[in-house]
């Protein structure tokens, strides 16, 4: 899958996301740009972790994308979950940041 930014998203990335979303197999998934900055690839999928564990993973250098499956309780209505999408950029050039943002908008249709 390719977005208008020219950054490709591997089929593997989509498969892991579907496993998180539909099968609740993972608590969070980390993605990153490959060394050529032309493709987003799977970095890690974690089955059990706390939110603090997840946040500590995002502080690594370079652009990272992530999805996290939040569990919470809504008073009077029971257990719920929401999936949040993150894009994190540390110490990178603006051009790469722009490409990552464009992917986020166009790649998550």
UniProtKB/TrEMBL annotation:
SUPFAM superfamilies: Actin depolymerizing proteins (SSF55753). Residues 4-109 form the ADF-H domain. Pfam families: Cofilin_ADF. InterPro entries: ADF-H, ADF-H/Gelsolin-like_dom_sf, ADF/Cofilin. GO terms for biological process: actin filament depolymerization. It comes from the Eukaryota. It is found in: Nucleus matrix. The keyword Ion transport does not apply. Keywords: Actin-binding. GO terms for molecular function: actin binding. GO terms for cellular component: actin cytoskeleton; nuclear matrix. Gene3D superfamilies: Severin. Belongs to the actin-binding proteins ADF family. This is Cofilin. It comes from Rhizophagus irregularis (strain DAOM 197198w) (Glomus intraradices).
């Amino acid at each position: 899958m390719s977005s208008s930014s020219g950054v490709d998203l591997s089929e593997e990335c989509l498969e892991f996301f579907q496993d998180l979303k539909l099968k609740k197999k993972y608590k969070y998934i980390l993605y990153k740009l490959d060394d050529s900055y032309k493709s987003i690839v799977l970095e890690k999928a974690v089955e059990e972790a706390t939110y603090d564990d997840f946040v500590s993973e995002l502080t690594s250098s370079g652009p990272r994308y992530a999805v996290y499956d939040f569990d919470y309780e809504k008073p009077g209505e029971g257990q719920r979950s929401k999936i949040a999408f993150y894009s994190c950029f540390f110490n990178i050039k603006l051009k790469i940041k722009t490409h990552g943002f464009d992917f986020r908008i166009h790649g998550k249709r």
